[in-house]
Amino acid sequence: MNYSLPTTTIDPAVERLNTARIGIQRFGQPILFTLGMIGCILNIAIFLRSSMRTNSCAIYFHASSWANLSCLTWGLFVSMMGYFLNYNPLTYISVYCKVRYYILTASQLASRACVVLACLDRFLLCSQSVGQRSFCRPNVAFKVMLVTVASCAVLSIYVLVVYDSFPQARQCTTSTAAGKVIDTTVLFCFNFGTPALLMSTFSGLIIWRLKRNSTRVGRRKVHVRHRDLQLATMLIGQVILYIVTALPFVSTFVYLTITQYDPQSSKSAYRIAAENLTLTATGSFGTFIFNALTFYVYTLTAPSFRRELFKLIVPVCWMSQFVTREQSQMTRTNRIHPSIRDALSMKFPEQT
């Protein structure tokens, strides 16, 4: 008598989606976390240098780097450990669930707010008004930054009330419908909508003012230092990175909000796999790309930032030897091929 065991076949398309999701969690998250931590630490070290501490825009970049470091630690690292250890205490410990999402929300808000302040700083720096340019002083920037970070911490207090852990569902999420509405409102208004609008507006106005200033002559022209122009370039590159990486996450969040009441039984296996992959790619991975890659945007867009990085990495003794060698080469070159000034300064004996 032959007995045939029941076998279940998995659709190859579903298997590919699941493999892609596992690949992002297993390889993508650790790579992004490593690059992000290295970048944030180097950002902080560079913006702590004396040449950077006196610039108001660099102060906002410095504060944003600390916020990005916190986002990577409490966001990406916690998510990554939950996958590798196959145990996520967020879904069992209520206090840990609340504190983790509170710190993550406050850090994300502070990171965006500091970039918006940097945009406003560069916009006012290009103004003809002395009063507007006074906003760009380092002491003013430091006070504004402290008030902004404190405001983000106060705004995020709602997370401690509306979030809770659900062991049976293995989730850490909002506990009531009202909490879901509050969380969604804060996400759209303060974490994406308002920052994206302000960043885009100020970036466009910065470019407009710089072009307008280049056509001015005499006293009407605002003299902007080359370092400040490069900081503006770094800022615009950061804004582009933020908008490009935030749009997919917001689109996914809108889709999940609309379809949250669809019964799970009505979804096909392919749809479930596609939703899980999209949520992983745009949520636990994609939403942290902005926090992780700011250092590399700065490095690619600003030569002054690359010089500060070079001074930070290369030891002082090597730098002094390089400068000494360069000076000796210049001296040797001048001896062999004297400049016009040296030639004119030479005294020749008079002919009799």
From TrEMBL:
The keyword Transferase does not apply. It is a multi-pass membrane protein. The chain crosses the membrane at residues 27-48, 60-81, 140-161, 185-210, 231-258, 278-298. Keywords: G-protein coupled receptor, Membrane, Receptor, Transducer, Transmembrane, Transmembrane helix. The keyword Transmembrane helix applies. GO terms for molecular function: G protein-coupled receptor activity. SUPFAM superfamilies: Family A G protein-coupled receptor-like (SSF81321). It is found in: Membrane. Residues 39-290 form the G-protein coupled receptors family 1 profile domain. Pfam families: 7tm_1 (PF00001). GO terms for cellular component: plasma membrane. It comes from the Eukaryota. This is G-protein coupled receptors family 1 profile domain-containing protein.
